[in-house]
Amino acid sequence: MPRILVVEDEPAIAESLAYALSRDGFTVAIAGTLAAAARELPGTDLVVLDLMLPDGSGFDLLGRIRRGGATPAVIVLSSRDAEADRVAALETGADDYVTKPFSPREIVARVRAVLRRAATQVAAPAAAAPVSLALAVDAASRRAFVHGRPFELTRVEFDLLATMLGVPGRVLTRAELIERVWGEGFAITDRTIDTHVKALRRKVGDAGGSAAMIETVRGVGFRVGGDLPPEPR
Question: Do 52 and 158 belong to one domain?
Fold first, then answer.
């Protein structure tokens, strides 16, 4: 079974999460500080990460995980529910964001959903050398490209882009995106979808593309333009 690392400095919360996850069959380790979490990271499949820790911010560990190219999924736990905090966590590379208080059963369900999503590759164009479209993905290597140049995306951002590129020009509702990217029965709000799309647009623009290629159809959902401009010669 996957190995879960619970990074939480409140013993009652950490132990209740570890107990619930263990009962569900997961292997669980607990770390109460950033230093202890760094030692436990090797071999970890998913990190349940509190943002406020005695020796620093959980953002530091999240950034270290993503900058180092590490693959664990990350579910952030926080008592802060402001949109700015959610956006910051998701843009830094979190796969999910849960506000306190929460039930251990909810966390177990979210852990299962995030791991299921991580193990499932979204159907996408099969070309290994995408050279004809301004935006493209390679599903086998899970790499995204702007004008043939690779750029970095989080797991969720990649899956959203691959899903939209799989049906260019077609509008996908938020409900369809949730079903295709997160899976049936996963509780995701419209605001969370919008936050991920906003982060995706920003990264496309920073990589030299046009954020406008990912279009919002007001009141319906999102699409990648059916007539994507060709790569400059």
Answer: no
